[in-house]
From TrEMBL:
Residues 33-347 form the Acyltransferase domain. This is Acyltransferase 3 domain-containing protein. The chain crosses the membrane at residues 70-90, 102-121, 156-175, 182-199, 219-239, 259-280, 329-350. InterPro entries: Acyl_transf_3_dom (IPR002656), Acyltransferase_3 (IPR050879). Keywords: Membrane, Transmembrane, Transmembrane helix. Residues 1-25 are annotated as: Disordered. The keyword Transmembrane helix applies.
Length: 459
């Protein structure tokens, strides 16, 4: 999945962020192209669940005329998640970034599990399966992929959450690795080879402990996350386009090996081409009608909540709509409307406030403080303990002064340098795409004068 960290507004081609809707838009400079990709993938998920999977699980639902029988949308969301994870981790201290991912994903997920269970108890048609409290607990702990025969899903869409958590933890491990001379792209190839090499044992070995390891940790879809990171590496110029294309093609081949369905693989490959276009090409704001842009941005901002809440509750709504005489198309619209309603509720009532509150607690616990306007560090542990060097800055473009920013990649050389680095605003306000370090940053406490360079993006 995809999800969703607030960093500076930098064009996605030169770096962006990962995770849920709000943060990823901030990370990519609110590029409309990424919002379109996210919303399109989400609509594919809803289309697949409403027209194919729901009638398969609930035979009393009327057959669909335009059924999408290929699970493409969720796979593409995992690719997008990999892209933004690779971009965002370069703009924050890795541990800080990782905790931010957890704060974004888990509270909304837990709230969605409880909300779905409660509404299932209240509104599910007679004869439909409804979760017991033990099932709710197992879902909160994400036990389904470890023992699916014992722990049924409260909402089957949630299968991507542990895959993202494992992948984010892998990104953290790579960033904190002691063997930094090993290129990151070599580790991408290693992860892909590891997944494929273990596939025969998963399919033919029959070992339940091994299946729990392979499925429970989400290795069977790790190639999608690798593909997203590879697209970011190409877009940011870290690897050549030929090398990146070879890595993405290998990821597509791994997907075919896992799903054994050529049509699904072709759909994922086509979606990857669209993602590449969003990453390396111009923004699509000149192509998408201006009247549609606010709706697309709004849906992208709540996309994680929609994803978490649409399927089980949408199935229930579709069955009630059918009983009331509505046809398949209206039922599909009903699932989408259900996801939008409850997704918006989870986003504004849980995801965003929980993320802000937990980030404040984390910063208070670790002693990270916003620097004051004079550039001096706040109280508590030094910000350098978190790998972040605070510096004072004033916007040179006509936008007024900014109190302070955090230089996410501090420069420790004693010699004078000029290095363009992205920044994250400590306080809300205008954002800048990059800064030019005119003097060296010797310590976390020293304030350095910076000049903004490059194009400013909106927050």
């Amino acid at each position: 999945m995809f999800v969703p960290v607030p960093v500076s507004g930098v064009r996605a081609g030169s770096g962006a962020a990962s995770g849920g809707g709000t943060a990823s838009r901030a990370a990519s400079g609110r590029r409309l192209s990424w919002d379109v990709v996210r919303v399109a993938a989400l609509l594919l998920v809803v289309w697949f669940h409403s027209t194919w999977q729901a009638p398969l699980w609930h035979a009393e639902l009327a057959p669909r005329t335009f059924a999408l029988g290929y699970p493409v949308g969720a796979s593409l969301l995992l690719v997008v998640s990999g892209y933004f994870a690779a971009a965002a981790v370069r703009r924050q201290e890795p541990w800080r970034w990782w905790w931010g991912r957890l704060f974004r994903l888990l509270p909304a997920f837990w709230a969605a599990v409880l909300l779905t269970a409660f509404l299932s108890w209240e509104a599910a048609p007679v004869g439909w399966w409804v979760p017991a409290w033990s099932d709710v607990g197992a879902n909160v702990l994400m036990l389904w992929q470890w023992k699916p025969q014992l722990y049924p899903y409260v909402d089957a869409s949630h299968w991507t959450i542990p895959i993202q958590l494992v992948a984010f933890t892998g990104v953290l491990a790579v960033c904190r690795r002691p063997w930094r001379r090993v290129p990151g792209v070599a580790l991408l190839w290693a992860a892909l080879v590891f997944e494929v090499a273990l596939w025969p044992e998963r399919v033919y070995g029959g070992s339940e402990p091994f299946r729990m390891f392979y499925d429970g940790l989400g290795w069977y879809r790790m190639h999608l996350f690798v593909a997203g990171v590879a697209v970011y590496a190409v877009a940011s110029g870290r690897i050549g386009r030929a090398h990146g294309a070879l890595l993405v093609v290998a990821c597509v081949a791994a997907h075919q090996l896992q799903v054994l369905d050529a049509t699904t693989t072709v759909g994922v490959a086509a979606g990857l081409l669209v993602i590449v276009a969003a990453a390396v090409g111009p923004d699509w704001d000149g192509v998408v009608p201006s009247a549609a842009q606010p709706v697309i941005r709004w849906l992208a901002g709540i996309s994680y909540g929609v994803y978490l809440t649409h399927q089980t509750l949408g199935d229930i709504v579709m069955r009630h709509l059918q009983d009331a005489g509505f046809g398949p198309f209206a039922q599909t619209v009903g699932m989408l409307a259900t996801g939008v309603l409850f997704g918006w509720l989870v986003t504004v009532a849980v995801e965003r406030p929980a993320y802000r509150a937990l980030c404040r607690l984390r910063d208070r616990w670790t002693g990270v403080r916003a620097v004051r306007a004079d550039g001096s560090a706040g109280t508590g542990r030094a910000a350098a303990s978190a790998g972040v060097a605070p510096v004072a800055v004033t916007l040179v473009e006509p936008a007024g002064p900014v109190a302070a920013v955090t230089l996410v990649k501090p420069v420790r050389s004693a010699a004078a340098v000029e290095v363009v680095k992205p920044v994250r605003l400590v306080k809300p306000g205008e954002t800048a795409g990059s800064v030019k370090l005119v003097k060296p940053a010797r310590s976390a406490e020293s304030a350095r004068r910076l000049e903004l360079s490059g194009r400013r993006e909106s927050p």
